[in-house]
Specification:
- It is a single chain.
- By secondary structure, the protein is mainly beta.
- Helices cover 12% and strands 38% of the residues.
- An 8-stranded mixed sheet has the order 1-4-5-6-11-12-3-2, with no helix packed on it. It has a 4-stranded antiparallel sheet with strand order 7-8-9-10, with no helix packed on it.
- Strand 8 and strand 9 form a beta hairpin.
- The longest helix is centred in the N-terminal third of the chain and has 17 residues.
- The chain is globular.
- Bound molecules: FE2/S2 (inorganic) cluster.
- FE2/S2 (inorganic) cluster binds next to loops.
Amino acid sequence: MKVTRRDFVKAGATVAGAALMGDFLLSCTAGQKRYKVAMTGDKIIINLDEFPFLKEEWGGGIFAAGKKVGLVVVNTPDGYVAFKVNCTHKQCAVDWVKEEKHFVCPCHKGTYDIDGSVVSGPPPEPLKRWLVAEEGGKLFITEA
Ligand code: FES
């Protein structure tokens, strides 16, 4: 099949438009596994029994609620933290690297500490923090 210049431009515009529509670019990297969770109203609810790695100190993972919200959640000695998974540089999804206790962006190697502050690389701002409340073996996460 011959691809014309017009077809090529049209396909590019479609991909770019899709990327702009959602702010959670799940497909921009082949990073860590994403766990699907539901969003109820403005809350993301994570049942800790379903994700035993979150009960371990420094255990963390990436959670997707629909196509628009992606969070990285970590169990720290001071409690759970959650951040929007998108890097503040070009919106790639960051990974949680437990061994380094850093969030690392696979696109341009931006790194953030456990508070979401930029440690190195091109990100211009900290990760966006969400609020986490723990009750009855569940995490209730809302936008700050
Ligand atoms: S998109 Fe994350 S460092 Fe560039």
